[in-house]
Amino acid sequence: METEPVRILVHGASGRMGRALLRLAAADPRLVVTAAASRSGVAPADVRSDARWLTGARLADAPEFDVAIDFSLPDAFDAVLAACVARGVALVSGTTGLADAQLAALDAAAQRIPLVWAANYSLGVAVLAELVRQAAQALPGWDADIVEAHHVHKKDAPSGTALALGRAVAAGRGREPHYASLRAGDIVGEHTVQLTGPGERLELVHRATDRDVFARGALEVAVRLRGRAPGRHALGALLFAS
Ligand SMILES: NC(=O)c1ccc[n+]([C@@H]2O[C@H](COP(=O)([O-])OP(=O)(O)OC[C@H]3O[C@@H](n4cnc5c(N)ncnc54)[C@H](OP(=O)(O)O)[C@@H]3O)[C@@H](O)[C@H]2O)c1
């Protein structure tokens, strides 16, 4: 059994998610953050971190790490994927809005390294996706709509989580739902899957009120991914395995 802490590179370390990852990792004895990357490569004045900071263009200079955790932007994703493949280390990514070619590159990289990509690292959404699949299967003729709401800084729409829930709808009833997106204030993340039949409506809702749920899930996956065989590992299988 491994006793050494898992060495982490946080990619997107100065962002909203990156800051939560640095704070929670510092309080977890199973983890040590050895490297932090951002566009600027400089730690923000209000972030305390002993990690070595680098720009996304200089990941080759990073000290050794076992797992990269990436919550950045689609533009920055190719570099962290390439760095992980070059070093033969694991990748946990939550960056949303990736292009189809980037998702294909992710699948190709999974032949060489263990990795997880998930649109949402919360336990509640993992359970919601299963409930949605069952409901859509039981009510195949009803209208299906997904309404998602996020803070005004979120760039992609519909959210990656909405699209993942849409795939659960399609898995249940064979057709994609319609999507609606709201961007307002500081909403962390809300998803409503609405199934509407004649005279009745079923709503399945998840509300995240604290960004820490995503960071906590990603850190847990990083611990569980170390030492795994190459492949694209499923979030649910890793999180729910005892
Ligand atoms: N899967 C999930 O559970 C989940 C949950 C929440 C968010 N997300 C996703 O995670 C991503 C980040 O969200 P956020 O709210 O933290 O965004 P954010 O606050 O805008 O932070 C983006 C981070 O990426 C960095 N970055 C930008 N370009 C870069 C580059 N070329 N190389 C290296 N780093 C670069 C930024 O650095 P600078 O500060 O130097 O610009 C910053 O640290 C988004 O795709 C979001 O949708 C996923």
Short précis:
The chain is of the alpha/beta class and 242 residues long. 35% of the residues lie in helices and 26% in strands.
Provide a descriptive summary of the structure in words:
The protein has helices spanning 16-26, 74-87, 100-109, 123-138, 160-173, 212-225, 235-240; strands at 6-11, 31-38, 52-55, 67-70, 90-93, 114-117, 143-150, 178-183, 189-197, 200-208, 231-232. It is of the alpha/beta class and 242 residues long. Helix 3 (100-109) links the parallel strand 5 and strand 6. Helix 2 (74-87) packs parallel to helix 3 and helix 4 runs parallel beside helix 5 (160-173). The relative contact order is 0.15. NADP nicotinamide-adenine-dinucleotide phosphate is lined by residues 11-18, 37-40, 56, 71-73, 75-76, 94-97, 118-121, 154, 214.
In terms of topology, how is this protein built?
Layout: E1 6-11, H1 16-26, E2 31-38, E3 52-55, E4 67-70, H2 74-87, E5 90-93, H3 100-109, E6 114-117, H4 123-138, E7 143-150, H5 160-173, E8 178-183, E9 189-197, E10 200-208, H6 212-225, E11 231-232, H7 235-240
Parallel strand pairs: 1-2, 1-4, 2-3, 4-5, 5-6, 6-11, 7-8
Antiparallel strand pairs: 7-9, 9-10
- Overall pLDDT confidence: 95
Bound molecules: NADP nicotinamide-adenine-dinucleotide phosphate
What string, H for helix and E for strand, traces the elements in order? EHEEEHEHEHEHEEEHEH
Instruction: Please count the helical segments.
Output: 7
Radius of gyration: 18 Å
Strand proportion: 25-35%
Distance between the termini: 15 Å
| Outline type | globular
User: From the structure provided, what is the oligomeric state, counting identical versus distinct chains?
Assistant: single chain
Largest sheet: 7 strands, parallel
Structural class: alpha/beta
Total DSSP E strands: 11
Proportion of residues in helical segments: 25-40%
Uncertain stretches: none
- Neighbour order of strands in the largest sheet: 3-2-1-4-5-6-11
